[in-house]
Amino acid sequence: xxxxxxxxxxxxxxxxxxxxxxxxxxxxxxxxxxxxxxxxxxxxxxxxxxxxxxxxxxxxxxxxxxxxxxxxxxxxxxxxxxxxxxxxxxxxxxxxxxxxxxxxxxxxxxxxxxxxxxxxxxxxxxxxxxxxxxxxxxxxxxxxxxxxxxxxxxxxxxxxxxxxxxxxxxxxxxxxxxxxxxxxxxxxxxxxxxxxxxxxxxxxxxxxxxxxxxxxxxxxxxxxxxxxxxxxxxxxxxxxxxxxxxxxxxxxxxxxxxxxxxxxxxxxxxxxxxxxxxxxxxxxxxxxxxxxxxxxxxxxxxxxxxxxxxxxxxxxxxxxxxxxxxxxxxxxxxxxxxxxxxxxxxxxxxxxxxxxxxxxxxxxxxxxxxxxxxxxxxxxxxxxxxxxxxxxxxxxxxxxxxxxxxxxxxxxxxxxxxxxxxxxxxxxxxxxxxxxxxxxxxxxxxxxxxxxxxxxxxxxxxxxxxxxxxxxxxxxxxxxxxxxxxxxxxxxxxxxxxxxxxxxxxxxxxxxxxxxxxxxxxxxxxxxxxxxxxxxxxxxxxxxxxxxxxxxxxxxxxxxxxxxxxxxxxxxxxxxxxxxxxxxxxxxxxxxxxxxxxxxxxxxxxxxxxxxxxxxxxxxxxxxxxxxxxxxxx
Length: 634
Ligand SMILES: [Zn+2]
Fold this sequence. Notes:
This protein is of the alpha+beta class.
């Protein structure tokens, strides 16, 4: 997954705290022979954003039957407890007589007499509104909007039976005739008002989300991979065709970079754009979730087309590289995923780190970005990684990622996780005289394991060392399994690159670091809250702001009262500054020690001091050769 912290989130964080849920236990044991479960969902009968689900497993040979909704799903690394959205579970025998159902905990129900069971029915709520849904990632969530759009991340709707994770499902969906399904799930039949899909096992219920929407989509092919891109835009602002060229160019480059390590036949990109209300419901969360042959992407609809293109390139390239890992290279913990207990692999440095690193490296290797851009991405990752616990071994964090304090460090998989891979790449290039890089290692692992065969979690490091060099083993021991922070300078110097002090361009004039706005809410004497200036950057100082100023008017707009209800208005007010152009004139009003003051100036280019990565002027031919091998694969 790429959990993208976009501009709107920084602001919302001022006002919102997200809650995490915990989860109950798990029961086990097999009770029934393999079977096909008939699932039925009727999208034409929606009430209060709820749907009725029917699952028909047929009778069980004997004993009690346990029904589960998943608690954890692959790629999210946190508890979602989808049982919370299920109510009114009923069980029936084949004469349509009710059987007793007991809810054991949030995600588990039992039916005492399995021999009599014919089918169960229940009501599901979506995650896009209501109190419970806001802590589920929207890209893994469910949206039920009558006659308009349905995001069917089916793990939020269809559960599984004890012992039945490997059973196949036939999912019959009745739909309004003007909505079209987009999905990589195998489709058995299709009419204007009914589709029947087949999931080979419960895994596919999770791995193949379905988006029912108006028919706004484009397709293109990458040699032998057919790519489909479907968009739902609530007001119709964004169209699939606007993004086709950008996505096609980017994915062609990815395919060239990956070589034959990708055996996918088709790939679906499902983009659902959110309203401001939904963005707020999710606390500003936007991003994407990876699947074997598709990805679900959610962004705020109010983002302008150019910025949305940039976000799509970063997010979709990351998700598409997940087809390498974990999809083609993963451990037993991922393959036999435990949907109701967090049993995690120690290799997040690879699942997320390698993916994120390649999503940057391919851009320079394929000529989409230049060296300076690549260096600034890596230096930003170094700066951001320092905001997490740099002494926490990555393997320990990974194994425990669903629990605190490890969960708080999850974001570092995109920062330090990528940097771990950068260092490994440099080591392997150095040791092989430039001939091999970390991509070669991953291609070899994908060839050996592939989709169907997991590796043993505890043996991966030894296997990679055996394929490469002892220096790689020392690196894993010291910096991935060990507590020692990585001395980046040591590794970058090998490639004639140095880390020095520099200026970093900020995403908006209102930010003092890439994450920190210049204002914060503080209580005042009247017992309400003010927005007080708590930090400055070069442009804010130039315009005349001082720390302690109380912001009253922001470029012509009065600051509303700082209440929960006004969050959307505040968000919009500050959000527009991210799109301001450098030559734009802006005006503000502040209260300084009680006295009103008007401040004026141009937006300019706001910067913050940062660590910059640059090529050394006096690099030796050996260093330059290693740098070229690393950055360009030659
Ligand atoms: Zn990811």
